[in-house]
Amino acid sequence: MNRSTLSSSNKKFTLSIAKAIDGFLKFKVAEGLSQRTVDSYEYYLNQWMNHIGDQDVAKIKSSDLTNYLAWMRTEYKPKRWNGNEDPLSAKSLRNVYIALRAFYTWLNKEFNLPNPAKEITPPKFPQHVIQTFSKEDIEKLIKACIYSREAQTEQRHKFVMRRPSANRDQAIVLTLLDTGLRATELCSLTVEDVDLKTGKVNVRHGVGGGAKGGKGRVTYLGKVARKAVWRYLATREDGSDPKAPLFISAGDRPFNRDSLRILIRRLGERAQIAHVHPHKFRHTFAITYLRSGGDVFTLQSLLGHGSLDMVRHYAQIAEVDVENAHRKASPVDNWRL
Fold first, then answer.
1. 250-271 tens-digit pLDDT
2. What class, spelled out in words, does domain 135-333 have in CATH?
3. Strand 200-203 and strand 217-220: pairing?
């Protein structure tokens, strides 16, 4: 080995924060994380780099990350479109911590660098109140899907008209309620993903399926929801095309999270119900499923949760005893081993 090669091999390895962030984001895209999650990581990590400067990642200590989180909590003034400069919410601060922790966990695994985030206590935030729809709320929403608002002219009495998108909107509401799908998962469904004979709904693996973390699963539609989806597809020219989007918005474009949220919000306004959004259907499905006798472990699978944490929260609201549910399901106890 010559002197130049030896000198090169003994040179200390350095990696700038900017290069590390670029590699981390590419790794997460290859791993199958949703674009929304990758964008969130990119935003928080670049914000952190702009604050501390583009230096060697190995030089960052736990105290540096702790000081940054403290600064974000007390001094940082968010730039919001409405001019509001209120401090970051506890949930947003935790998202900053999660991005930093994921970043340094990756660096530790890939380059065997110390993980300063491991020594930091995660910022706590209060569990948000879970809101659900009542049966009466759903009945009002379905009516809002079908009929326009009551109108009155000088020549005629009050009247309502059937909305052109009635079949589609009713099918969307019933599908969200009956499956507990996330908004992106519903928007990613194609015609072939739903078996209208059995009710089986296939949330595909990977980014294309819209599932959180790219983890696909199977959930189900009941008879009433299946009929609603069938009626809607029967009115579409591409309703039998297996690769066509299950639901399409204006201009025959697939729905996305934003367009779906706008549709659901407008239905809520028409039905005069507050706080109507796609995820509220998921909460309603989970709570109703447990109160109707469903078990927490099957619910975890249907919702696609990686752990029982959120399901336990649903169980507390539904007043379901997780310990008792496990006792009933325990193979060791039931098989009397």
1. 888 999 999 999 999 999 999 9
2. mainly alpha
3. antiparallel
Q: Which two tokens stand for residue 66?
A: 């702790």
What backbone phi and psi angles, to 5 degrees, belong to 231? -60, -40
What does the pLDDT look like over 289-317, one tens digit per residue?
Answer: 998 888 888 999 999 988 888 888 898 88
Tokens encoding 287: 């709570």
Stated pTM of the model: 0.73
Token output for 286: 């989970």
Q: Describe the crossing of helices 166-179 and 135-146 by its angle, rounded to 10 degrees.
A: 160
Q: How many CA atoms lie within 13 Å of 181's alpha carbon, on the beta-carbon side?
A: 31
CATH architecture of residue range(s) 14-119: Orthogonal Bundle (1.10)
Tell me: pLDDT of 90 over 70.
yes
Encoding tokens for residue 201?
A: 């709904």
Percent of the chain with pLDDT over 90: 63
Average pLDDT in the chain: 88
